[in-house]
């Protein structure tokens, strides 16, 4: 696929986008079934900019698996590839809220119906279930009637190496949980102790996480019920993180002595985030399921200036 030398300027060539969120983890969605658009890191950062762009914690580039070199091998199992990017333009292996919003977009666009589907990601093929909900135009009312979307996230890995995170002069040990992407989970007494994560990111790359890490701060709210804040690699503090909520549930189950891999009994944690609630179940075979809302809130066209010419193929 060759890049063209001019940005799309005619109305016919305008690039569409949508905006969606899952528990207020928000995404710019760029439908591009045939992979005609090469999105550079700088273009993604411009689109995700909350003042000069559309604004988002990340971007979901929607491409048919068969049309994307990173997904072609998964095309037989999953028609659609979630090419996920963080707000700074960096690439991540997986995004748990993103894949639910991605599925909601596919449903709204008429590519899939409610029920089961498979989505290709850099973290492998994920099975998604869209509960039946209201159809119709995008309004906050109908968005609220949409059923939850559940995704099978695969198994967590727990590498032995851990780090200490520090904010505002306080430090905590963390549990290293890999959900396809890396997480460091810290149990704290008070979520306010995580301080201002915008001005003081809790972690800088080291040998344990050479590519950076997502850091979760967790408090207890009740039995199998926790609340968390998160500082996401490549996006800063966000109001929710799906893979982070899964990592937190896994860490809490080990701490609470209810690891399903040991007990043979599934365990469910309710995880409250600043942007909403996710329900995480870990099964005895290690499979982790995450359920929560996903809504589309807007759609439009991208101003050509946001996509510089050399980054845009024939559209
Ligand atoms: N918000 C996402 C995680 C996005 C990727 C993350 N920032 C990373 O770099 O690993 C989620 O819902 O899981």
UniProtKB/TrEMBL annotation:
Keywords: Amino-acid biosynthesis, Cytoplasm, Isomerase, Lysine biosynthesis. The keyword Isomerase applies. GO terms for biological process: lysine biosynthetic process via diaminopimelate. It comes from Streptomyces jumonjinensis. Its main location: cytoplasm. Pathway: Amino-acid biosynthesis; L-lysine biosynthesis via DAP pathway; DL-2,6-diaminopimelate from LL-2,6-diaminopimelate: step 1/1. It is found in: Cytoplasm. Homodimer. Catalyzes the stereoinversion of LL-2,6-diaminopimelate (L,L-DAP) to meso-diaminopimelate (meso-DAP), a precursor of L-lysine and an essential component of the bacterial peptidoglycan. This is Diaminopimelate epimerase. Pfam families: DAP_epimerase. Belongs to the diaminopimelate epimerase family. It catalyses: (2S,6S)-2,6-diaminopimelate = meso-2,6-diaminopimelate. The record marks 183, 232 as: Could be important to modulate the pK values of the two catalytic cysteine residues. InterPro entries: DAP_epimerase_AS (IPR018510), DAP_epimerase_DapF (IPR001653). The active site is at residues 95, 241. Coiled coil: none annotated. Substrate binds at residues 25, 86, 96-97, 181, 214, 232-233, 242-243. It is an enzyme of class 5 (isomerase). GO terms for molecular function: diaminopimelate epimerase activity. Its EC number is 5.1.1.7. GO terms for cellular component: cytosol.
